[in-house]
Design goal:
By secondary structure, the chain is mainly beta. It has a domain of about 180 residues. The protein is about 10% helix and about 40% strand. Strands 1, 2, 3, 6, 7, 13, 16, 17, 19 and 21 form a ten-stranded mixed sheet that branches. Strands 4, 5, 8, 9, 10 and 20 form a six-stranded antiparallel sheet that branches. A five-stranded antiparallel sheet has the order 15-14-23-24-22, covered by helices on one side. A hairpin with a 4-residue loop joins strand 4 and strand 5. The relative contact order is 0.18.
Length: about 400
């Protein structure tokens, strides 16, 4: 399935910044005095480059920012830069600054062509010049299948074994012997509130005329993990049963219907090594032995000061994508709460105390021969949008 690819800048930038901040959290618990090593460049504002060019239609976006102090993390966009992308045929396009550290190509401008090489150029307002190496845009390799398998995983956060779906991916056979991949995953899941809304209170009690309207939602999330692999040790250039993410039944992701979009990016060897190192650092979880992220050099440098640390990697890649849908696994138990605290005594007192949150939604509770309003302890019990979802069904959604 071909898609118009737009880089998810938030995913890559958050991953890099998370690792950078994580590197400052060195604290060793032992039977000796606490050790707090000196963190070189801990408070230095380091330039972060986030962007790529693909074989999908543009425009392409380059995001520039600076890291912030470890104790005071904020987003610091890098503005006023001159940014351009060059290919190995000599064609170059200057990007337009659109605000918040984002620089974009024209829709009809430079395009990613498999087999060509691309380089990023940056000129800072202060006269510094940065450039990447030329990156080869490898052709996309198709995805054969994505599929879940029921698995049971141990977790230090739970006293019992988790149950859920482990997702796997199979690639099609690459045209070259050695192929390098980065996978990005986006999940969308359908879920329900615990109760239907029957009343709404805005200073007065009213019947709620459309009880289904806030009962069902869809929520889309980027999977915040790095997945990389290659075919260097395989007898044929095809990857089978590569493990992606695990989704347990501890929350609502699998409660109704779940969709996974996988984007498979064909990388250069150098880009693969970079992302592999990022993955390894993130898995170290900030231990005392963790490497600091500016020791993982990308392909961008200050041409007049090669020792200046620069975070990020400008890379090129062909993209293939595939989406799957899975229904609620009927053979597994779910452990999230399906009931809520219900307030009936002094309900109108609570409604008044929560007046800044009006309108408030209530359920119907049977009492005697009739039904009466009852106030849930949390609005997430009745309003699915309170869990971050939307009541608008995605265009791509397929129901059963």
């Amino acid at each position: 399935m071909a898609i118009n690819y737009k880089i998810n800048r938030t995913w890559i930038l958050a991953k890099i910044k998370w690792i950078f901040l994580l590197s400052g959290l060195f604290f060793l618990f032992a039977c000796i005095d606490d050790y707090w090593p000196e963190i070189k460049n801990a408070n230095q504002a380091i330039l972060v480059i986030d962007g790529m060019i693909t074989d999908q239609p543009g425009p392409y976006v380059i995001k520039l920012s600076f890291t912030s102090q470890i104790n005071y993390p904020v987003i610091n966009p890098a503005v006023g830069y001159t940014v351009s992308i060059e290919d190995n045929t000599g064609y170059m396009e200057n990007l337009k600054e659109v605000g918040n550290g984002e620089y974009t190509t024209l829709s009809e401008g430079i395009s990613g062509v498999p087999g060509r090489r691309y380089k990023l150029h940056l000129d800072s307002p202060g006269g510094k010049k940065y450039e990447s190496t030329f990156e080869l845009l490898n052709p996309a390799v198709g995805i054969d299948s994505i599929y879940p398998e029921i698995e049971y995983h141990e977790s230090p956060d739970y006293e019992y074994t988790l149950s859920g779906f482990q997702f796997y991916i199979d690639t099609k056979e690459a045209e070259v012997d050695t192929a390098y991949y980065l996978w990005r995953l986006t999940s969308t899941y359908k879920y329900n509130s615990n109760y239907l809304i029957r009343y709404v209170y805005d200073g007065e009690m009213h019947a709620f005329t459309d009880p289904d309207s806030l009962y069902t939602c869809w929520k889309t999330e980027q999977i915040d993990q790095v997945f990389t692999s290659n075919t260097t040790t395989l007898s044929e250039p095809r990857i089978l049963k590569f493990p992606l993410h695990y989704v347990s039944t501890e929350d609502r992701e699998l409660s109704v219907r779940y969709s996974l979009l996988a984007e498979q990016i064909s990388l250069s060897k150098a880009a693969h090594i970079y992302w592999k190192q990022i993955r390894e650092i993130s898995s170290e979880q900030g231990t005392i032995y963790a490497r600091q992220p500016y020791q993982v050099r990308g392909n961008i440098k200050n041409i007049n000061d090669p020792d200046e640390p620069v975070l990020g990697y400008f890379f090129a890649g062909g993209i293939s994508s595939k989406r799957i849908f899975v229904n609620r696994p009927t053979m597994l138990n779910f452990n999230y709460n399906t009931t809520c605290d219900i307030i009936t005594e002094d309900m109108y007192t609570m409604l008044w105390l929560w007046r800044k949150k009006w309108p408030l939604y209530l359920i119907a509770q049977s009492a005697g021969s009739g039904q009466y309003p009852a106030l849930p302890g949390q609005q997430t019990c009745v309003d699915c949008t309170e869990r971050g979802g939307t009541i608008i069904e995605p265009d791509f959604w397929i129901n059963y």
